Amino acid sequence: MANSGRAHLTPAVMGESPGRVPTAHPDRIAIVSASIGAGHDGAAAELQRRLTAQGIVVDRYDLLDLVPARLGRTARDAYRLILDRAPWLYQRIYSSTERAGGGGREVRALLRSAENRVLKALHPQTGAVVSTYPGASRVLGNLRLDGRLGIPVLTYLTDFSVHPLWVADGVDVHLAAHAVPAAQARAAGAKDVRVRGPVADPRFQPRDLRQRSLARVRFGLPPLAPLALLVAGSWGVGPVRQAARELRDCGAVVPVVVCGRNTALAAQLRADGIEHVHGWVDDMPALMHAADVLVQNAGGLTTIEAFSAGLPVASYGCIPGHGLTNAEALDQAGVAVWIRHQDQLKDVLDNLIDGPLGLSQRDAGLALFADSPDRGPAAEAVRVLRSGRPLAASPPPTRRRTRLRQLAVTTTVACAVWTSAVAAGVATSDEGSTLMHAVSQSLDPDLDSGHAGHGADGHHR
User: Fold this and answer.
1) Nearest C-alpha neighbor of 236 from the set 267, 265, 274
2) For residue 337, what are the β-bridge partners?
3) Chain center to CA of 143
4) Which residue among 61, 108, 264, 443 has its CA within the 20 to 30 Å range from the CA of 118?
């Protein structure tokens, strides 16, 4: 499904004939994201806002909607279940795809199945495409290499660590938030990498004492105690219960935990005696104003938002795969300390809240946003757009060949997703039947998935 940016009206409603670009808005950019967690969508939304402010018409697409037979959403659901119930398996998958240079046969097949749909979805007057999800970058890069997409493709790297899947042959430009992910992208083979800073909703701004007091009253938080805001993504995954208890018991902070859509986690934390527990939070900027430090486990969009809000960040109890690699990259960049052991908690948190470490990390985080708006990722996308070429008109494969290839790809990927789900089920035998039943429902094309998957990766939890 596409969501238009500048105006959600169709050309016909705007007084234009279908298929023509409105004359008031001659520039058009497509953004392809994926509703996996919420960080990729959150970055896409902020890029859309900035591009729209510059007079660009923006079309947004969810890659999961463009994979046939609902396999995109099936893969997302399987990924979430594995991450939640068999994290060791996710670590193995992550490591194996790193060694494979970005994905195995099943991953490539899944992404290949979306190529024609992505190409067909793009408006004929699209001048450039921006990806905020590694799978989308692979799809778009393949279309560029095949000559079927004749316009520039940019990848906005939402993570501080760059898995090889992010770097796709055929992508023209990779946009990085910092020199550390830029160097990793180049090491993975990216040719044109430009450091243009991160994007965050402008509501995330440094607080003053009055805002801090008002936010604490609003959320029912203690007025004077040092508060650690513990986030775990929109799905609320990882060893959150353990981290919350250890934060409470270290004596340095009072934990304030945001569980996102994970209502079961919220109930467990309350049963553990954690006093300040929230589910989905609509006003994350205000909750950050109330806190003294952010503790995160995945390195997603909420981490970037904390930098923009001037909030020191610590990585702790990280999830496998990208959680660990992001923690290492953030630590290397000097913007977020990685606390590896429980016995380090009190000293590091004290230093972040009242010591020089917190001051230096706050300055380093805010410095990411110091460049003028005309040097940011959205402005760079506009520059690439205006130097690009028109959409290629190369014909797609014949209908018969396309259908046969899609059938083969769909069968291959369905088997791969099912195998992964079974492995996770075996790893958690008491919950295995529930897991496999859930994936079976996802594979049934006659059933509605019923999953929204929206929110920020660690955002609005």
Assistant:
1) 265
2) 314
3) 23
4) 443
The predicted model scores a pTM of 0.79
From CA 374, how far away is CA 143, in angstroms rounded?
29
What is the tens place of the pLDDT at every residue in 308-329? Answer: 999 999 999 998 888 999 999 9
The torsion angle over the Cα atoms of residues 8, 10, 11 and 12, rounded to 10 degrees, is -140
Q: What is the pLDDT of residues 185-220, one digit of tens each?
A: 999 999 999 999 999 999 999 999 999 999 999 999
What's the mean pLDDT in 102-108?
Answer: 64
Residue 351: closest CA among 385, 313, 380, 325: 313
Q: Which residue, chain included where needed, has tokens 């805001």?
A: 229
Q: Who's near 364: CB < 8 A, 6+ residues apart?
A: 333, 334, 335
Buried b (16+ CB within 10 A) or exposed e, 277-295: bbbbbeebbbbbbbbbbbb
Sheet of strand 153-156: strand arrangement: 2-4, 57-62, 28-33, 128-131, 153-156, 173-176, 193-195
Cβ–Cβ under 8 Å, residues 410 and 69: yes
Query: 22 and 16 in contact (C-beta within 8 Å)?
Result: yes
* Helical segments of 345-456, H only: 345-354, 356-367, 377-386, 399-427, 432-443
Pairing verdict, β 128-131 and 153-156: parallel
pLDDT at residue 6 above 70?
A: no
- Spatial CA neighbour of 225 closest among 253, 248, 245: 253
Report the distance separating Cα 295 and Cα 312, nearest Å: 9
Taking CA atoms, 26 is separated from 3, 5, 120, in Å, by: 18, 14, 20
Phi first, then psi: what are they for 106, rounded to 5°? Answer: -65, -40
**Exposed / middle / buried, residue 260 (Cβ in 10 Å: 0-12, 13-18, 19+):** buried
CB-based contact 331:360 (threshold 8 Å): no
Cα–Cα distance, 68 to 73 (Å, whole number) = 10
Q: What angle do CA 434, 435, 438 make, to 5 degrees?
A: 85
The answer to whether the CB of 290 falls within 8 A of the CB of 223 is no
Tokens of 289: 């104003």
Q: Are 290 and 216 contacting, i.e. CB atoms less than 8 angstroms apart?
A: yes
**What kind and span of H or E run contains 158?**
none
